[in-house]
Amino acid sequence: MTDSPASSLSSWKLSSRVCLLLAFLVVGACAQSPDTEGEASAESPAASSQPEPYVVEIHQADYAFSMPGEIPSGWITFRAPNVGDEHHVAVFLRLPEGVSRTDWHEGVAALNATGDLPEWWDQLGDAGGTGAVAPGITAQTTINMEPGLYGVLCGVIAPDGTSHWAHGMQASF
Ligand SMILES: [Cu+2]
Questions:
Q1: How many whole angstroms from 169 Cα to the centroid of ligand 1?
Q2: Residue numbers of the domain that contains 97
Q3: In whole angstroms, what separates CA 49 from the centre of its chain?
Q4: Which of 2, 108, 123, 141 has the fewest CB atoms in 10 Å of its CB?
Q5: Total structural domains in the chain?
Q6: Do 155 and 91 meet the contact criterion of CB atoms below 8 Å apart?
Q7: Is 43 a member of any domain?
Q8: What is the model's pTM?
């Protein structure tokens, strides 16, 4: 026996911390399972073998989104740096059946011009998005995206009293 009681105690503390860390990782994995079980059970026998999520960058400026127009379905991590001088948010809205991306952009333009909502506006589906972030901050969220078309809006109000989307902060994918 070469270990002193003190070093045995410190190695016990270390291993208990490792166990605590592993417990957090297991809890984290379990917390995701209700959403992932459909596809994960067929392809991914263990959490450690799952591929990294597909990452999409959404640059938020005053007043425009810069992001890809095509994104795969499935688990997507959206990273949204705010490179502007005002707060920004990226809200994803799933377009209803029969509404094209052109319809979306024309509908938002008409809303800005007249205040009239397009007839399909109440059929838009909430599809998540990133929270409001201050200038210089990056928001990040991971969402299981269903196949389909999506509109993106920033609804923050500019100093002139109109929405950021009315200033052009809208996109689609
Ligand atoms: Cu904005």
A1: 6
A2: 5-32+52-172
A3: 22
A4: 2
A5: 1
A6: yes
A7: no
A8: 0.70
